Amino acid sequence: MPARSSHSSTMSSHIVGPDLAPSTSLPAPRLVSKSSAALHIVGGGHRHSSSSSTPHVPAPHQNRVEDLRHAHVRLDARPGFELSLSTWSGLLSRPRSSADLQYRTPRFARQLLEILNTLQVPSWTQSTITPEALVIRKVSGSLTNAVFFVSSSTSRTLLLRIYGPSSGELISRPRELHTLHVLSSTYHLGPRVYGTFDNGRVEQYFESVTLTAADIRLPKISSHIGARMAELHCVDIAAIELAPAGAGWQIGAEKNVNSWLPPARHVLALPSVRESVRADLDLTRFQATWDAYMKWLRDCELKEGASKRVFCHNDAQYGNLLKLHHLKEDTPEHHQIIVVDFEYASPNPAAFDIANHFHEWTANYHGPTPHILDPTRYPTPEERRNFYRAYLTHCQPPLPSTSPARFAALGDDARERELQLLEQHVRAWSPASHAMWAVWGIVQAREDAEASNPEPEFDYFGYARSRMAGFYREVGALMQLP
After folding, report:
1. Distance between CA atoms of 369 and 318, rounded to whole angstroms?
2. Which of 73-82, 129-138, 198-207, 451-460 has the lowest mean pLDDT?
3. What is the rounded radius of gyration, in angstroms, for the C-alpha atoms of the chain?
4. Closest CA to 226 of 315, 323, 360, 354
5. Please, what is the average pLDDT of the chain?
């Protein structure tokens, strides 16, 4: 999917790497029920609900988590006020497009410093730090959120995340914060979250460089990604999924498609949406095909075996894969690759996560047509086997065949069988990736559609069309549909 939180400069957000210190100084955030009456936080501003077909105004506390400091401030990084002050000294000088200028205003800096003081972020509560001293740098390529690096001469660099206008329809922020805490404190897989504000949060920063579309195709880098994905898949689902007593967790891909379809229908019903777009993205046809595909998958897994259900990242695109500048001694080489941005993480078949990553090989979000995937760039059989070998080598048993042995301990024939089974599972789950991000693209198009924007920053409808075409193409091949 698009580089929603792609980081084009040295940084790290939600970092996967046991070589990094856990964030044990924060209490475990407790998820807040929508019906809870014991909230110590108040709401502010308009965000988007994840359960309504017209999701504009959620409950005030919907983006809050108890026991995590919260500042009752809303930051607006979009264009619209104080543009005449855009050259104010102390803020990073950049080309003066209207989208860039908003976060460079004095008002934005004052509000941000108020947030950092309220959250008591280490090294940022000194009275000597003034708004004029802030250096705020926007990270390009982020489409779900606006991401910034914040620094001053006397304080450590921070990562500032401002939630996108449509992200509330797609992401449960309390659940995401709970996930980040568990990954950090239990598995040493993440940064500290210093606190939240009305439409975002402040996180720890680590020095790293974002991978590129070309980087992920390099055999060594690809094998490192496979190894890191296998390690993430070892996370205990029960430690993250807080299902009610007696209730099980749902497969993330299926849950997302089903919950995102109502807001997607709402977007396509907007008067500004062209009939040609509605025809190309016919959700009645899509849902019928999706339901038939899910039934086919269930029957297939009953007959031929299922891909192991694991905790998945679900968005391992190149903008969410970073390379650390420095690696501690005696640390495995593949730990230089770290995975960031767990907004869409959830339980899923392992094969879904792998298939989704392979589809990201076909994307170039910094090219002339960033919304169009190129199927000819899909990894070759040998490139897939290179990834599979690294993945299976670091995978905790059982293996795809349900073998309790480690992959490295198997003979040549047995290892070949595991490789072929994993390929079979990935092929079966591959259309689900296209389906999920096709619906996501429609939901993300809402703001541009409501504004009748003829030249959006990113063509979400075009992206949805590209993904939906891939879904029909692959489902047709698997199920031999016309």
Report:
1. 16
2. 73-82
3. 22
4. 354
5. 81
The pair of structure tokens assigned to 121 is: 């972020």
Please check whether residue 348 is in contact with residue 310, taking contact to mean a CB–CB distance below 8 angstroms: yes
Opening angle at CA 276, ends 274 and 280, nearest 5 = 125
* Separation of alpha carbons 344 and 86, rounded Å: 34
- Every domain of the chain with CATH number 3.90.1200.10 lies at 211-479
Q: Could you tell me which residues are beta bridge partners of residue 30?
A: 66
118-130: pLDDT as tens digits: 999 999 988 889 9
Q: What is the DSSP string of 176-194?
A: HHHHHHHHHHHH--S--EE
> How many Cβ atoms sit within 10 Å of the Cβ of residue 269?
12
- List, in sequence order, every residue forming a beta bridge with 196; answer none if it has no partner: 70, 201
Smallest CA-to-CA distance from 277 within 441, 166, 457, 55 is with 441
**3-state percent breakdown (helix, strand, coil) of the chain, nearest 5:** 45, 10, 45
Record: fold of 211-479: Aminoglycoside 3'-phosphotransferase; Chain: A, domain 2 (3.90.1200)
Tokens standing for residue 416: 């070949």
Bigger pLDDT: 141 or 321?
A: 321
What Å distances lie between residue 55 and 33, 131, 185, 239, CA to CA?
A: 18, 35, 33, 30
Instruction: Give the residue range(s) of CATH 3.30.200.20 domains in the chain.
Output: 70-205
**Host H or E run for residue 410:** none
Instruction: Give the total residue count for the chain.
Output: 482
String of DSSP letters for 387-401: HHHHHHHTPPSS-TT
Residue 301: is its pLDDT beyond 90? yes
CA distance 222 to 385: 10
Give mean pLDDT, residues 82-99. 33
Q: What is the CATH T-level fold of the domain 70-205, as seen in this structure?
A: Phosphorylase Kinase; domain 1 (3.30.200)
- What span, in angstroms and rounded, lies between the C-alpha atoms of 427 and 432? 10
Tokens standing for residue 446? 């809402």
Q: For residues 191 and 179, is the Cβ–Cβ distance under 8 A?
A: no
Query: Whose structure tokens read 């650390």?
Result: 324
Q: d(Cα 165, Cα 449) in Å, to the nearest integer?
A: 13
Cα–Cα distance, 71 to 210 (Å, whole number) = 30
pTM of this structure: 0.78
Please tell me the distance from the alpha carbon of residue 325 to that of residue 209, in angstroms, as a whole number.
Answer: 7
pLDDT value, residue 78: 62
Say which residues have a Cβ less than 8 Å from residue 398's Cβ, sequence separation at least 6. 308, 404
**Helix spans in 205-282 (H):** 219-232, 237-240, 252-268, 275-280
Query: How distant is the alpha carbon of residue 166 from its chain centre?
Result: 14
Over residues 203-216, the pLDDT tens digits come to: 888 788 999 999 99
Q: Is 164 helix (H, G, I), strand (E, B) or coil?
A: coil
